[in-house]
Amino acid sequence: MSKATTDLPAALLALEQNLPNVRVPGAHDKIYKDECVYSFDSPESETGLYICLNTFLGFGRQHVEKHYAKTENAVYLHLKRTKKPIAQSKHDIEGNQLPKRLAIGLEGGFDTREPKFEYDEVWSIVVLPDFLSIPLPYELLPTKIATAVSAIQTFDSARKLEEMTPWDGEQRLASRYAYELMQLENGVRIAPAGWKCENCDLTANLWMNLTDGRVFCGRKNFDGSGGNNHAIDHYNATKYPLAVKLGTITPTGGDVYSYPEDDMVLDPLLADHLAHFGVNIQQMEKTEKNMAEMEVDLNQKYDEWSLIQESDSKLVPLYGPGFTGMINLGNSCYMNSVMQVLFILPDFKEQGLETSSVEGIRPYMFKSLVGKDHPEFGTKRQQDAEEFFRHLMTMIERCDRSGPSATDAFQYKVEERTQCGQSGKVRYTTRGDCVWSVMIPTEAAMNKHELAAYEERKKTALAKGEKADSVDLVRPVISFNSCIQNFASVEDIDDFYSSAVRGKTRATKSTRFVTFPDYLLIQLKKFTVGPDWVPKKLDVSVDMPLTLDIGFLRAYGRKPDEELLPEDDEVPPTPVVRIDESMVQQLMEAGFSKEGCQRAVFHTASSGVETAMNWIMEHMLDEDFNTPFQIPGAKKEVQVSEENIENIMTMGFTREQSIRALENTDNDITRAIDWIFSHADDDVEPAPAAAVPNANGNKPPVPDHNCRDGPGAYRLRAFISHMGTSTACGHYVCHILKDDKWVIYNDEKVALSEKPPKDLGYLYLYERVGN
What we know:
Blueprint: H1 8-17, E1 49-52, E2 58-59, H2 61-71, E3 75-85, H3 90-94, E4 117-127, E5 132-135, H4 143-154, H5 158-163, E6 206-209, E7 215-217, H6 230-238, E8 242-245, E9 256-258, E10 263-265, H7 270-275, H8 291-299, H9 302-309, E11 316-317, H10 333-342, H11 364-371, H12 385-399, E12 412-420, E13 426-433, E14 436-438, H13 448-463, E15 477-479, H14 480-488, E16 491-498, E17 503-513, E18 519-524, E19 527-529, E20 535-537, E21 541-543, E22 547-549, H15 581-588, H16 594-603, H17 609-619, H18 642-649, H19 655-663, H20 669-678, E23 713-723, E24 731-738, E25 741-746, E26 749-752, E27 763-768
Parallel strand pairs: 14-18, 15-21
Antiparallel strand pairs: 1-2, 1-3, 3-4, 4-5, 6-7, 6-8, 8-9, 9-10, 11-26, 12-13, 12-17, 16-17, 18-27, 19-20, 22-23, 23-24, 23-27, 24-25, 25-26
Helix pairs in contact: 10-12, 15-16, 16-17, 18-19, 19-20
Domain UBA: 578-619, 639-679
Pfam families: UBA, UCH, zf-UBP, zf-UBP_var
Domain UBP-type: 173-281
């Protein structure tokens, strides 16, 4: 590559010749001056950043020539920035307090700012292809160039504009019950202090119902702390919707919870609602932690956070190829962890460099690209790493339509065998996946005696008025073999419609692998719903093996003596069942999807909310639980748009695929494309003549051509751990095995791991051993 040369006469002449292609940025132009749009080069990189004075896109040195060759835009504003740390004052150090709220970059929240630095910036005009340079400032610049340069230097960058609206975990919506809240004229008056639960002796974590003014304790936490659930019991008995947490009320508001909306909410009329019971909001002072502060405390629980981040170890920092960290862009650690695990490189270079001098990349452009138009990943909210991995796989598949996809290494097929208990006939179905989601059988804990002793110590501590977390934590220890056995076990189905007997009967279902992928990503299902319908995270230790052999889970296909169940078109029409929409709405208020709630009400014949909720508890992990629901046997007429058909066909799909997809997605083009990818194999049926019996006399299922296959023997290469109480908050960290040494990636911090906590992971990446 040629170097920029300072030849003022030649540079000014070239600049004059290319002046027609220069634009002055307007109010609606986005200026990419923080990072190269094709790489992670930035103004702080060795060669700086080149900003096109026509498109205002930023480029690193290796991409600016490609942009010039493609567009013939020759004039660029070059920025080279050098960062120098400034020693922090005593005041700054003392002011570095623990977070008090679930906020990113806001007062009292998680401070994502780097230590204070000063910057040396060097600006220049560079004209390609000879990289002729004009150092700035330069008084004889053409007016158009000077105006464009000034605008680029002073306008906010595209990245900064995007970040102007910070994410704040405390942001809440106004409750729909607030404006028409019923308040009883019962003479209740609430004192400004000295509160106590009406049903027990608790004097903390108290909630006053805003309809009748009665005071009860809050929910019990997963660790035994909190209340005794008396406030929720009162709601279940009365259905009075809103309650405020006493001790959090200040002149600016307080913590208000809506039971039917199942969320923290805003009550715009809180002052009036409190005054009804004699509470003057202007005289109230905060005496307890609010819910956001309690969530922060739970998320920073010493044991889990310190173990996963290896806080008690003096870790040796690493840098170089394969050891570059990714700076957290406001709760993007779910993205960082997935991308770092996927970027597995073979080389290993241990370096003794100070952490403060190691630079991580800022994946602004990548985050914007993968989150574009997505309702969740396009936001700054914390997301689930497993869901992000699936989203990324879908995006890659869409771009690899012309040939083999990079996602093929993760794709596999499973076979589900269902056998009618009355007729003995069977049905085989296959489906594709890229993540093996495994349930954790907590009842199979190997340390039940220690757990019982721990619960007894915790109960004793609570009886003495001590906190539950004062007792050393003991987690259930589960062998991954128990998880595999749970997956391999035969599932009983009590409500199975058999096309052979034309009625409901019992059946059994088993699942096996048709193919084994090159890379097997395992998700431990740690997030579940408790018996009180409250989402929770299982705090368990799973003994994950370094080597794994699941070859015995291979599917053998249909046996020669097995008779298949009749096809669906031979089944008589399903009796009409009315779906009670009011029940669907009540179930949705508990936090479940509309599709899942419709399924529950349909399959329980609208017999009641409690019955439907029990159905949800049993089926919420089904593959189709959240997919669009249509009553079985009911044909829904959909008018398909010819324009939508043509738009989908331009992406390489057939007309028949396009029509079927639109018919199954209410003519929604975006959902239709996703439907095609998730039903790509619906029409692929293994031909009986092509299935050659194996040694057992069975006809094995025919693997899909997009799924690689091989032995089911694997070794652990990486794992991602989650810290926190739910996927909506907390932090992700990943560990990767490189040259038989574990490396920890904690956003931009990369170091040699001393005690990799492989028993506390959430996602595990296994690599196939052998061919």
